[in-house]
Amino acid sequence: MRWFEILVPGNSQYSNEIDLLFAGLMTASALVLILLFGLVLFFIVRYRANSGVSREGAASKSWHWEIGWTVATAVVFLGMFAWGADLYIQLNKMPADALTIYVVAKQWMWKAEHPGGQMEINSLHVPVGRDVRLVMGSQDVIHSFFVPAFRLKHDVVPGRFQSLWFKATRPGTFELLCAEYCGTDHSRMAGNIVVLLPTDYQAWLTAQNTNDSLAAEGGNLFRSLGCSGCHAPSSSVHAPRLEGVYGKPVPLADGTFVTADEAYIRDSILQPRKQIAAGYEPIMPVFAGRISEDELLRLIAYIKSLANARETQP
């Protein structure tokens, strides 16, 4: 379904279906509009003053028509709603094996950080044909990550992580914009998504000047902040172990459970008293305002790297 791509050709696994759904909504809305104004004009002409047309028995003559077009349009739009809801669910099903890239939005730039420690500003290199998951945070105000060619738009709100995923279907360079007014230079907050063949993507990663992976940098920061003094296996402080915690359910002091994802780890670092792990005292210091979004992403990458550490220990 490419005829609807008037301005920007689609380049993601769901762009065709999104275009088709949009075209269907526009067509259905246009047909309803034509029907409505057509009937208005018809009745204006037919029942104008001194037309001589009988006006008796209006209720008995028209009720079946009114019920008919009401039911027909309701069925059409409910079908559109079901179609859109199904597409929305698919777009929010994060693939388990997706390549995770961290994105920090700040006035007025996009900063991308790859797992291997590669960093780029206002540019994002990704491989074609592979699921890519973006974990996004804002350093200051609300931004909106918008890639027209991918039919992709997601607000990036300060104080929390936002996640989205996509799979590019062909190589090329595609425009990245901010779709939420974020200050004086909002219009200049733009960049590019560079989609490469897998071999070219690996060559690009190798060519970048990196010393450590994101997880390794997070490990250094973890120790420099003194976190290892409490969370290390040999520590005498009664603090939760971090080995093997990522992706697992964590029991809380109030009797509930929470999955240890990026959002939970973020809150545990910045607001440790928000969700207290069962069996532990709330003695961890608050790091809100003490570390940046970049440092926070590094710490999370390090904790994620410990996901299988407990299983591999003797």
Features:
alpha+beta, 12 strands, 314 residues
What is the chain-wise order of helices and strands?
A: HHEEEEEEEEEEHHHEEHHH
Overall 3D shape: elongated
In spatial order, strands of the major sheet run 3-2-1-5-8
Which blocks of ≥5 consecutive residues have pLDDT under 50?
none
Q: Termini distance?
A: 56 Å
How many strand elements?
12
Q: Helix coverage percent of residues?
A: 25-40%
Q: Give the percentage of residues in beta strands.
A: 15-25%
Largest sheet, in brief, is: 5 strands, mixed
Structural class: alpha+beta
Mean pLDDT: 85
The gyration radius over C-alpha positions equals 27 Å
Number of helices: 8
Give a description of the structure:
Helix 1 packs antiparallel against helix 2 and helix 6 (262-270) crosses helix 7 (293-305). The chain has helices at residues 15-46, 58-91, 198-207, 214-224, 228-231, 262-270, 293-305, 309-312, and strands at residues 99-106, 109-113, 119-121, 123-127, 132-138, 143-147, 152-156, 162-166, 172-178, 190-196, 249-251, 257-259. The longest helix has 34 residues, at 58-91. Strands 3-2-1-5-8 form a 5-stranded mixed sheet, covered by helices on one side. A 5-stranded mixed sheet has the order 4-10-9-6-7. It has a two-stranded antiparallel sheet with strand order 11-12. Strand 11 and strand 12 (257-259) form a beta hairpin. With 314 residues, the protein is α+β, with helices and mostly antiparallel strands. The model has no long low-confidence stretch (mean pLDDT 85).
